[in-house]
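Supplementary notes for students who missed Thursday's class. We covered one full example, reproduced here. Read the sequence, then the structure, then the short commentary at the end.
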Amino acid sequence: MGIQRGSEIKPAHGKLGVLLPGMGAVATTFIAGVEAVRRGLAQPVGSLTQLGTIRIGKRTENKNPKISDFVPLAGLDDLVFGGWDIFTDDAYEAAAHAGVLKPETLAQIKPFLQSVRPMAGVFEPQWVKKLHGTHVKTGTSKRDLAEQLIADIAAWKQQNDISRCVAIWCGSTEVYQVPSAVHASLAAFEAGLDASDEAIAPSAIYAYALLKSGVAYANGAPNLSLDFPAMHELAKQQGLPIAGKDFKTGQTLMKTVIAPMLKARMLGLTGWYSTNILGNRDGEVLDDPDSFKTKEMSKLGALEYILQPHLYPELYKEFHHVVRINYYPPRGDNKEGWDNIDIFGWLGYPMQIKVDFLCRDSILAAPIVLDLALFLDLAQRSGMAGVQEWLSFYFKTPMTVPGLYPEHDLFIQLMKLKNTLRYLRGEELITHLGTEYYD
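Structure (token representation):
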């Protein structure tokens, strides 16, 4: 982690800028939700930073402060919102179009939402084939586009009197990509910007511009974005925390709860069939096979890492895992995820689990954006740089430092997150070891 236990954490003075590349359903639900909470119109349900508690010391001590009282997080009143989009809609228009929040909710905060207007985005249609941006930057090279983003950030921070700044990618899923030579080092990436290398996606241009501008960054989509050596190098060079990737909201959230139960009880798995229907912009984008491939790879990874078939071949070797996403416009943002799970128990007798999660995609994602913004800011004020594995709790495909496998088990992830907070404050880590009466 590169920090000492109980290290000094710089105070959260001044305004915290939250920049959002992609100001569609997720981003506007987050912005509108924070404003509604600030006005006392609603509660921040789903947010660990706002409602969660953390146990300190032994169980007998009964010390369970709220996380927001235990670590010095920025207050909601200090948050200022900005970002980019490939459409001109302000936050009110975008939220109304997304149809996530009720019109009466939006009406109460309409003037505020109308004041949040996106800057023109960086967009190349070959990376998101189903969208046709009308509010996009033009430039002589990808380096030029990056410099335009850097200028946007500097001007926005000055205009809004921003003391500190973080960014959360809330944009669409790009087509599937694996790292290539241009991603191998910062020098190679910068040369690629100059040459407008076709392997540099728009999300990676954002990542570069944000990190060069001193902005901590988390990636909420499965895009490669900053999960490659060049961006790891830049984050360390700039002393910035980074995290990602792909918000863990619905179906994968359920998998990271159910799969640990199967392994804990040594119950076998022969197959896990997952299908989704989704009608928002994300569903439209994922209707393209190349973009779906990116999402599919993100959703497929959790089970293998949790179940560890190489350690338990008699239980999990060669189980069948299928993921489908179907674009179904009538459902809008109200995604439905069906899971059909074929398991076996004592003496190999088969059983089944059926899960039908009728969830609201952006309602589940919005508090994640809030928590990531506040925790990234905390990490930066604590001197934590590079990949923040303790934030794996929020992601389908958690980034790791090179050489380590990602942790997907939701409960291990939560323990890691809370132990990191304890470590920052110089408290003893909770290991659940010790005597029956005193631990």
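Commentary. The longest strand covers residues 268-278. Residues 146 and 209 are 5 Å apart (CA to CA). If anything here is unclear, bring it to office hours.
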